Amino acid sequence: MSLDSVEPPHVHIQRERMVAKFWLDPVALERAGGFQPQELNRLFKMTQENRNSLLERWYEYFGK
């Protein structure tokens, strides 16, 4: 099981050597990791739009 289970629901978004981490409830940027501000805005909006599905998957995976 992933060590992520001890943290609140979140997603990691990675491209090349960049990684962003967003909390899901509520959606908030936790770590930016090299993405440009305009990319982070787009990723934030995508995370918000898919929040319910991402939370469902989180709880399915971690069984909480």
Task: Describe the protein in words.
By secondary structure, the chain is an alpha+beta fold. The protein has one domain (3-62). 39% of the residues lie in helices and 28% in strands. The chain contains 2 helices and 3 strands; from the N terminus they run E-E-E-H-H. It has helices at residues 37-49, 51-62; strands spanning 10-15, 18-24, 27-31. A 3-stranded antiparallel sheet has the order 1-2-3. Strand 2 and strand 3 (27-31) form a beta hairpin. It is globular and about 35 Å long. It starts with 9 loop residues before the first strand and ends with a helix. The relative contact order is 0.21.
Helix content: 25-40%
Give the beta-strand count.
3
The radius of gyration computed from the alpha-carbon positions, rounded to a whole number of angstroms, is 12 Å
H/E order of the elements? EEEHH
